[in-house]
């Protein structure tokens, strides 16, 4: 199980809703990245938690991971960074991304919990 808390939501995060993309980043995010990311702080960590079929909870919304990019676990383990696509499962994803279902964009607020695990 992985668990973290939303600490800050960048002012440009909503601009990615049309693309159905949410970018998470840990505390090491640079100033340039902070405006487009949801910044979170780890409470409980498990390595390589991003796997197809695993549940992802973002605040009140729950998703199932469908695809995992080749660098997604490494980026998440080291930086708390992951790009999450809420799209049709037929699309290709970048190495540092995951694809989840259902395709509903989450509404996050500071203090919300992020959980990954079944």
Strand content: 35-45%
Number of strands: 8
Describe the global form: globular
Low-confidence stretches: none
Structural class: mainly beta
Pattern of helices and strands: EEHEEEHEEE
Gyration radius, in Å: 13 Å
Biggest sheet, in brief?
8 strands, mixed, barrel
Distance between the termini: 7 Å
Number of helices: 2
- Fraction of residues in helices? 10-25%
Strand order of the largest sheet: 1-3-2-6-7-5-4-8
Mean pLDDT: 95
Describe the structure.
The chain is globular. It is built from two helices and eight strands. It is mainly beta and 118 residues long. An eight-stranded mixed β-barrel has the order 1-3-2-6-7-5-4-8. The modification Phosphohistidine is found at residue 40. This is PTS glucitol/sorbitol transporter subunit IIA. Pfam families: PTSIIA_gutA. It comes from Enterococcus entomosocium.
